Amino acid sequence: MRRSDRGSITLWMLGLSLLILLFGGLALDYWRGLALQRELAAVADSAALAAASGIDEEVYRSTGDLVLDPVRSRDLASAAVSWQGVDVVDLVVEVEPAFVVVTVSGAVKLGLLGAFVDQSEPLLVRASARALPVLLP
Length: 137
Prior knowledge:
Elements: H1 8-52, H2 57-63, H3 70-84, E1 90-95, E2 100-108, E3 123-131
Antiparallel strand pairs: 1-2, 2-3
């Protein structure tokens, strides 16, 4: 080994360690986002099922048609989300006469990457679910 090469391995290992630390932080934050997305998907599913049970009873009794009451469906979806205990940034409930679509959004809290990324805007994750009203025989 030449005298001028002395310490070059130390510099290479230091650089490699910093890269591994950066990619490790990226992986942890990615898994946080993925875990939050799965949690929000479960919340959206339960909220959509709850909202689909908001059948307009007057229309059903008079015509026999399954039509959703928009106000009742939104209230049921909002109650289902609040029961979950998940920090939801945004809840959107789109009620059509024959189905309902619930979209929930949440913010990912960045760990190590928060030092390298501008955090003025939160990293949002969304999940949505669609449900139809059904009467069981």
